[in-house]
Amino acid sequence: MEIGTVWSVWFSATGTTRKTVTAVSRAVAEALGAEWKEYSFNLPAARERDLCFSPTDLVVFGVPVYAGRVPNLLLPYVRDRVKGNGALAVPVVLYGNRDFDDGLMELRNVLAGNGFHPITAGAFVGEHSFSTVLGAGRPDEEDMALAGTLAEKTAAKAKALTAAPETPVPVEGCDPVRPYYTPRDRHGEPIRDFLKAKPETDPQKCVRCGLCARLCPLGSISPEDVSRVGKCFKCCACVKNCPKGAKYFAHAGYLYHQHELEDQYAGRRSPSRIFF
Ligand SMILES: Cc1cc2nc3c(=O)[nH]c(=O)nc-3n(C[C@H](O)[C@H](O)[C@H](O)COP(=O)(O)O)c2cc1C
Ligand code: SF4
Ligand code: SF4
Fold first, then answer.
1. Candidate CATH numbers 3.30.230.10, 3.40.50.10160, 2.60.40.420, 3.30.70.20; the one for domain 198-250
2. Residues near ligand 1 with C-beta < 6 Å?
3. Residue 37 DSSP code
4. What is the pTM of this model?
5. pLDDT tens digits for range 126-139
């Protein structure tokens, strides 16, 4: 099939999805001799308009996995405002060394339901948003080499197609997707008030540069007083991007979950996976 434009479309709070989707899409564009374009839907304003593609587009579309799924607060945008109109797609998810559960399946299905033809897909490991030791430094060289292989397979498949495929690329995960993963305490009970956890601001460190307020994907940090935070989905954009290390979580349930994840999963290298 003739592809005019390869798109890099992503949400990425701490940069791992952006890095991976950019690498895959750029390599596909180069292999196909196509134009390369980028669209980030990190900020609320970017999610207020429809994003429409055409049959001569190939869209590498990436989100992080939150609680084993497509982040619930992003789902309405992805489901209702992104229109494939016959474009080819490469669903990509990043997960933090625990598991991608049904995140890739959900993204693939939502894109297929929106008029895309998912031809290849990938689930890559990124450093966990909550941690600097869980999946530390990933995606690394090995992951990026696999991203290169995904790009090669994608370009070869797109070139070989004479018509849009009838069925989407098979990926790992349950279909229909399972409920969201629930963080639990040592008694196996859901951690109380986990959803209410939000970052604190250290007034001794904060220089009031306003970066966190500009970056927050939910627009929840007051630019006038960055210690005022509204609805938070714990993406950690503010925590990991604050130049002074002034944003941090102190919520007991959040810290319990972070340390439990680190204890259980930091000692192993989970695999990045590609599907074609
Ligand atoms: C609220 C939340 C839930 C998450 N749930 C999972 C999960 O279920 N499994 C997993 O392996 N990683 C999970 N992660 C980690 C992210 O998927 C991972 O760090 C990803 O690389 C972040 O992408 P980004 O850098 O583009 O923001 C979660 C992160 C957040 C913020
Ligand atoms: S990014 Fe950090 S230093 Fe800048 S306003 Fe936010 S908390 Fe303060
Ligand atoms: S306040 Fe919450 S939603 Fe906003 S950037 Fe920080 S962690 Fe993400």
1. 3.30.70.20
2. 12-17, 64-68, 94-99, 126-129, 181, 233-236
3. E
4. 0.98
5. 999 999 999 999 99
